[in-house]
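Researcher: I'd like a structural prediction for the single chain below. Treat it as a standalone chain; there are no partners to consider.
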Amino acid sequence: MSNLFHTTLLKTSRAGVNSSASGPFNRSFVKAIGLPLALALLLGGCQAQAVKPEAQQLSRLGRILVVPVESPPLEVIPDPIRSRAPVYGQYQYETVPSTLLMNKKLYRNQGGILIAGLVAESELTEADGSLQISDLTDQTEALVPATQASAYWSPSRMLAQDAAEQLTTDRLKATLSDSFYRLPMPGGDRAAEQGAWREAISRWYEQDRSSVDYRQADLNRIDAVLEVGISSYRIFENQTSLKVLVKLVDPATGQVIGRSSAQTQAAEDSAKSLLSRESERFKTLIAGLGRKLVARNLSELGLPFRQTSGNNQVALTLNRPAA
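Model: Treating it as a single chain, here is the predicted structure.
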């Protein structure tokens, strides 16, 4: 079980991501997010064992299709509503008056980041577009066109593209899919409750056989499918965390022949600072953290890869979602 409550400082090296951890699971964390959520995060560190492909399986790989997995909404603690409307800060330990009622919603900020958080009733009727409420409850599990998620910035798609670039070598050719894997969630669960998203990601990662049938005519020359997802995607105070999970799938049988995950945290800045100005600093931070975690996972799977340049990755990161 990994400790999600340690502060990890990233140190860049040629090998990938080196980290050192210090600081216990403390009372302030529990006080800020509540005991049920703290326990959920702790238990969320338990996951399926890593699987490394056999050498014979790796030797047969020539073409890989990289498929991004649906990204969960960003979790921000404390909730950003206190920055948008400071009046809510005084009610941390008091009952909020009925005139200041809030709802937990999925919304997209001005940088296209999908966030699960509190929205005031007054904000629901604002016409300035600063908070765009998202309703994903009518969507079901499937391999669907990426255009269906074009309204939101997708960190998993960005990292899937980075994985495809790192995997393209003299030995391998990797292609980014024009579709993405919809998480296995009942329609009613695809809302602002982070617990439902964590469970869906865990179910996907723990599957030993992909629920997507990759035996399609246009994939008959693909030797493997690499599914790329994320979890532990949050900002807590001035600490940003991210976990990248990958699964290597045999498209002919649907069997998972490789599985790896890597996680890190960086003490960078507050959510208010990172998510301002179209969230460009946050996107750049996630790109940098994610790039190293992708490389670590590819190495763990035994796949040949090359490190992509930071400049290219930042260019990908700052692409704005469609309006």
